[in-house]
Fold:
Amino acid sequence: MTETTGTTKGTTAGTRTGTAAARASSPRTRAAAGSPAWRNWAGNVTARPARTVAPATAGEVAAAVTRAASDGLKVKAAGTGHSFTAAAATDGLLLRPERLTGLRALDRAAGTVTVGAGTTLRQLNETLSAHGLSLANMGDIMEQTVSGAVSTGTHGTGRASASLSAQVRGLELVTADGSVLSCSAEENPEVFAAARLGLGALGVITALTFAVEPEFLLRAREEPMPLDRVTAEFDQLVAENEHFEFYWFPHTTSCVTKRNNRSAGPAAPPGRIGAFVEDELLSNGLFGALCAAGRAVPAAIPGIARVTGRALSARTYTDVPYKVFTSPRRVRFLEMEYALPREAALPALRELRAAIERSRLRVAFPVEVRTAPADDIPLSTAYGRETAYIAVHMYRGAPHQAYFRAAEQIMTAHDGRPHWGKLHSRDAGHLAAAYPRWTDFTAVRDRLDPGRVFGNGYLRRVLGE
Structure:
């Protein structure tokens, strides 16, 4: 049975494309003088576009792209700014996502749902839950748009379930000449393979179709654990749990582990008071205050890390997946993350710990370690290999360059691939050697956007000309 949505506020019929849709309604446009500066969530990237447009249909996107190209403007689509890179920055036309939202179609028989590209992960998951459905896996925040999350390779942790890009079953793409392509494994398959993680380099995604399944319950077990035990039992913990991750607090031997596994129920969500204390008061309020204190007095950070590492207690709860996978993130930070062959995770973590200990680095944020299965997406950081992700963070406004540089040297020495939406210094020369299907991706880009209408400085660096 297929359920479809009509034209409603915040959503469009999704079938009107091209000039007919462009005539039906006009995108909301701000001219150069009125286009405000765009800033990402972390505040480290700012752009001043010549024009800003908020289209509501693929046809409106196509018209805006065609006009911008004829005016000699580059085009970028921005989501909610949760990338730490300048992937969405432009001084040309900035496409805003707030009207490209909402449920387009739901096919229970096929196990798919189609939504507008500007739909946030929060909106997607709440909509799915209302229909008794769920994604198999996701990352730990819900504020990103679905197109931004897919285009930069957002992932969670999982023994067998991969990134959001790997859960995409179809997409609608506006290309540089104004064409609107429907892409799937059967239709425009080469474009589909590349655009599932396309960095915004191939065109503007206007709708995405995800694989979904009947909603299930996850039992979450969060537990402090010494670093030595985590590393000694790492392979076992990954093998025995559907989703395992841990956070190590630098300057300490303390970790917090999280194990998520499917449960027959019943649901037993965290109590309101306990959730507030753990997720808001400790993980955000107290942690944010301690980070601010550490930025002001870096010498205090090791002591602060010991307090932070002891503050969180063990807890177990059972809830629907998106409420288990995600957590509120109100403390702003900068992040670098590398994807390593899974067997390299612990050696790289040991080297990172040694680098912190022998230096004058002061790191208040925990180091996050997650895993993912291999996939077949050309620019996926997990392409062709079982993967472990190591993420390093620094509180916004604190000096991060020396720490990130040291981490990057270690990660690249272990054949690491940088997360596309997080800070790194790699360029196309390095990255081309890291991805076996690099030329497959660049060939699709050359065909769809030979004039680099969707280019910007970040793409020039990471993809080349």
The longest helix spans residues 272-296. The chain is about 30% helix and 25% strand. The CA atoms of residues 333 and 396 lie 4 Å apart.
